[in-house]
Automatic annotation (TrEMBL):
PANTHER family: ENDORIBONUCLEASE YBEY, CHLOROPLASTIC (PTHR46986)
Pfam family, one: YbeY
Protein family (similarity comment): Belongs to the endoribonuclease YbeY family.
GO cellular component: a single term: cytoplasm
Lineage: superkingdom: Bacteria
Cofactor: how bound: Binds 1 zinc ion.
Any GO molecular function: metalloendopeptidase activity
Chain positions recorded as Zn(2+) binding sites: H107, H111, H117
GO biological process, one term: rRNA processing
Native species: Acidocella aminolytica 101 = DSM 11237
Protein name, UniProt field: Endoribonuclease YbeY
Length: 146
C-alpha cells in the first residue's frame, strides 16, 4: 500500500484510500463517492486501493487470479476499486477516471441492493438503473457508445 490510508466517516461507514494515485487523479474522490452512494441509496464502506490488493482478494474469494475493477462484499457492505484497472479502462473508453470511479461506485452499490448482470435481461435492467443514477450525478451514460 502506498500510504497508511486516509479515511472519511460516512454514517458509520468509511472511505479508505490506500493508493495515493487515487488522490492525484481524483482529488474530489471522497465527495464523489459520498454523493454517488447517497443518490444510489446505499450505505457501504469504500476502499480505493491497488491492483495487487484486489487481485489477492479476487483470487481468495472468487478463484480468479487477476485484478478486477471493482469487488463488492455484502457483509459488511464494502466496495473496493483497483486503481490500475480503473485507469486502464477509463483511458481505453476515453472517459475521465473520476467519471469511471463514480460509475463503478454506483455499479457496486447496485450489486449490494441485489442487482446483477449475469443474464442479458438482468444486465439491461442494471445498466438502465446505473444510467438513471449517473444522470442525477451529471455523469455521462457509460453505455451510450459501446
Amino acid at each position: 500500500m502506498d500510504e497508511p490510508g486516509s479515511s472519511s466517516p460516512l454514517g458509520g461507514f468509511e472511505i479508505i484510500i490506500t493508493d495515493r494515485r487515487w488522490r492525484a487523479h481524483v482529488p474530489d474522490a471522497v465527495r464523489r463517492i459520498t454523493r454517488a452512494l447517497s443518490v444510489a441509496g446505499c450505505a457501504a464502506s469504500v476502499a480505493l486501493t491497488d491492483d495487487r490488493t484486489v487481485k489477492q482478494l479476487n483470487f481468495r474469494d472468487r478463484g480468479k487470479n487477476k485484478p478486477t475493477n471493482v469487488l463488492t462484499y455484502e457483509q459488511p457492505p464494502e466496495i473496493l476499486l483497483a486503481f490500475g484497472v480503473v485507469e486502464k479502462e477509463a483511458r481505453r473508453e476515453r472517459k475521465s477516471i473520476a467519471n469511471h470511479l463514480t460509475h463503478l461506485i454506483v455499479h457496486g452499490a447496485l450489486h449490494l441492493q441485489g442487482y446483477d448482470h449475469h443474464h442479458p435481461g438482468e444486465a439491461r435492467e442494471m445498466e438502465a438503473e446505473e444510467t438513471r443514477i449517473l444522470a442525477r450525478l451529471s455523469v455521462p451514460n457509460p453505455w451510450k457508445n459501446r
